[in-house]
Structures are given as C-alpha cells and as structure tokens.
Amino acid sequence: MSTDTATRKADPAVRPFHVDIADEAVVDLRRRIAAWRPPEREPVDDQSQGVQLATVRDLANYWATEYDWRRCEAKLNALPQFTTEIDGLDVHFIHVKSDQPNALPLIVSHGWPGSIIEQLKIIEPLTNPAEHRGSASDAFDVVIPSLPGYGFSGKPGAAGWDPDRIAGAWAMLMQRLGYTRYVAQGGDWGTAITAAMARQAPEGLLGIHVNFAQMVPLEMLSHIRNGDPAPADLSDAEKRAYGQVAFATYHRGYGVIQGTRRKRSATAWPTHPSASRPGSLTTTPPPTSTSPSSSPDTLTAPSPATTGSTTPRSTGSPTRLPRRRGCTGSRPLPAKTSTPSPTSPSPRQSRCSRRSMCTHREAGPRRRTTT
C-alpha cells in the first residue's frame, strides 16, 4: 500500500491513496493455501456438524488457483481513494462524485465481516442513475469509508472505537470533505453506526437509511431474552418471526464465540493458510460497545430533525434495533447499575461481552467478502 502525496484542492489533510500489494504477499498466500492439510471428511451428508469438507476444499482451490487479486486491486485503484486522520486514526475511504451539480452527498457504512468491496457495485447506479433507469435528479456523491481496523483504515491501538465514536468520525469526514448537507446509509454494523449518527444529529445530516433494521417490540425482546415461548396472543406470522429471532439469538455457534471469546478466532484466522489474502480486507473483530448507552441494544428512534422528514430520501423512525450476533445463549444477568438507562430495553443485561445486536439477519452465507 502506498500513499500519493500529491496536493488536492480539498482539505490538505485528505491524502490520495493507491493500493499496491507486494508480489511476495500474493505468492506467499498461494503457497500457504497449497500447503493446507484438510481434516477428515465429516461422518454426515449435511451441514448439521458445520461447514462440509467439500465446501472448504472448493474454497481453498478457488483461492489457490482462480482468484485474481490484481483484478481486485485494479478495480479499487480505478476509483478515487483517500485517507485522512480523524481522532488519531487514519481513515481510508472511496469518494466518487456525480457529474450532476446538485447530487446529494451520501456516506455508506459497511458491516462485519465485510469491507468497502461490498459497496463497489452501488457506486455507478448512485452517481449516474440516468444510465440505470433512474433520474438525474436522484444522483448522489458517494463516500464509502473503511471502518477502523478494516481494510486500509488504521487499526485502533486501544478499545473504544464503538459505533458512537465511529459515527462522530464519519460526521467529521463529511465536514472535512466540504459537505454541509448529506445523508447516511448502512447495513449490519453499518446500521449501528448510521443510527448512532442520527442520534448524535450532527449539523448537515438530513436523514438516514438502514438495511438491517430488525425491530422488536420491547415486551417481545424481554420474552426472547428470558427464553420464554411465544406469547399465545401473537398471530401465526408473528410467532414465526418470534421463533426466528429466538433461534438466531441463542443457537448460532459463531455468535457464542464472537460474544464471549472473539480473540480466540481472531488469533486463529491469520495463522490459517486458507484464511488470509492480500490486502487483509477484513481481519479484525467488529466494533465493540463499551457501555449500555453506546450499545446498539439501546438505539432509539432518531428525532424528526434527523429522520429526514423534509426529504423523501430518508427513512422513517422505528423504535429500536434488537440485539444481534454475539449472545452466549445464557440467561440474562442482573444489570450492574441499580438504575436502568431510560433508553435501555430491559433492566437486565446479557452475558454477551459485545453487548450488541444478537439477532441474526436472514442473509447469505457468512464469508469474507471478495471480488
């Protein structure tokens, strides 16, 4: 990786960025994958015991013989990339401006275990909607930052980079880019960050949109956390939803590990020959909330001033986000404080060390994102 020191008309603290992974790193990656010693085949013919050996073999073969990192690198370098220091940390981001003079600035936050690569496909339709069955008046200027510790952003040297802190950094980034009015979007952990931006209501933020807004009524959330069966007065559809949320909360093995011993997997992944790749686009644990008030557990509805009531591009204002990923499946523990937070959905907290969203999204397979 290298940083071009050429000057820009914008803030001098914003530096152009160019991806340049050494050939040695690519060769070493393929060597380690080729040296991988697979385990014995599972004694069942389904996924009841976890990922199947055939799937892992196919994945390893793809990385060793088919994947073209240089193609990915060229795709990234074809876009305007920059870094800037915010709150003591270098933040990497893509910044693509529309040709439309009145394009609305948009900052998009990726999730975990993802990266900016997930958002590459939306850049062209958003910046040039007229070529994608849209109207020129719908154009956006697109800003896509890499979360702290992800991709080419700096890695925090201490705890504390939770969604609230990242939200503040994103507001600073948009200000530094000269935007006085903008909107924000996010999914997965990007939802927590984007919702935090709405709560903080920085000057210029017109509204937000999230694509992981699982909303659970507070009374239902309490039942789920206590391991109760679905209340009898729910409709059949509501009971199905209740069961899905309950299952996702307590029966996801990776959630238990990430919620209690995430350092264990974080240590194992980089040493596994089939787990690394050039660029290391997703190698760190997800953002960790450090207090109930900063946890996505307690996300409350943005105020009308931040939900975009004055612009049709904005979202509505649902009540709260449930917990997702990282729950141990244990019974809740009494809260450490005698007085619950007024925004807390329950006076009890889970053992989940992340204290963050434990409800699994119904999405595609979990894997490290590539192109």
Describe this structure in words.
The chain is an alpha/beta fold and 371 residues long. It has one domain: Alpha/Beta hydrolase fold, catalytic domain (Rossmann fold, 3-Layer(aba) Sandwich). Helices cover 30% and strands 13% of the residues. The chain has helices at residues 23-34, 53-66, 69-77, 120-127, 163-176, 189-200, 218-225, 236-250, 253-260, 262-271; strands at 2-3, 15-18, 81-86, 89-96, 104-109, 140-145, 182-186, 205-210, 333-334, 348-349. It has an eight-stranded mixed sheet with strand order 1-2-3-4-6-5-7-8. It has a two-stranded antiparallel sheet with strand order 9-10. α4 (120-127) links the parallel β5 (104-109) and β6 (140-145). α1 (23-34) packs antiparallel against α2 (53-66), α5 (163-176) crosses α6 and α9 (253-260) packs across α10 (262-271). It starts with a strand and ends in a 22-residue tail after the last strand. The relative contact order is 0.13. The model is unreliable at 1-9, 276-286 and 288-371 (pLDDT under 50).
Keywords for this structure?
Rossmann fold; 10 helices; 10 strands; two-stranded antiparallel sheet; 371 residues; disordered N terminus; 30% helix
Q: Which structural class do you get from the secondary structure elements?
A: alpha/beta
Outline, from the CA principal axes? globular
Instruction: Enumerate the strands of the largest sheet in spatial order, edge to edge or round the barrel.
Output: 1-2-3-4-6-5-7-8
Give the total of domains. 1
The total strand number stands at 10
